[in-house]
Hints:
Largest sheet: 6 strands, antiparallel
Bound molecules: zinc ion
CATH architecture: Beta Complex
Amino acid sequence: MIILKSLRRFSDLKLKLSPHQLYITQGKGTERPFMGDHWWVKDTGTYYCIVCEQKLFPSHYKFFPDTGRCHFFASEDGATRLSGDNPKDQEVQCSGCGSHLGHFHPEGPAPTHVQYVIESGSLSFKEKPWFTVPPTRRALKQPRREAKALLKKQKEAEREEQRLKAVEENKLIKQKAHEELLKQHEENRKNKEQKKKQDNQGDQKNQNNEEEEANKPKSE
Length: 220
Ligand SMILES: [Zn+2]
């Protein structure tokens, strides 16, 4: 049932979106920088989700670091959500339909010090020259909080990595020491054997000599 539903949704989307938009929003695609429709646009208005037409980013949340992509320092209240297991690579999704929008970076310019790097192919833009509302306090706080949580997760992951590395190194050191010990044992054993052999040979020689000595006077 779910498969049927998603198939139907996909075929509906196929009619609605261009292949590029389909690739970005449903296939989590990445577009080449400077190739999208919106990264350079400085007009006043609002950016919407291309799939479900949810309001995502007001144009005055946008900034222009010349990377050839759309950068926003916040989204509309609750319009996006973050997803992904890797704290270093968090995906930005539309909270309305779950479409892929771009990626989130926990470092950025004021006022939130974070950035949403969004693919042009996931956005539609409606110009509204007279319409600018300053961002709400919550809209500014939310991304900052998310960034903090992310940075904490990143640090934890790094610490865990270091711990695992230390454990691995310790293991190697122990293994080396063990191998060294085994080698020494083997050498000791070999030395002992050789000594025994030499002693045996010496005994035999002595015995032989003694026998010869014993035989000599008889033959004379
Ligand atoms: Zn959407």
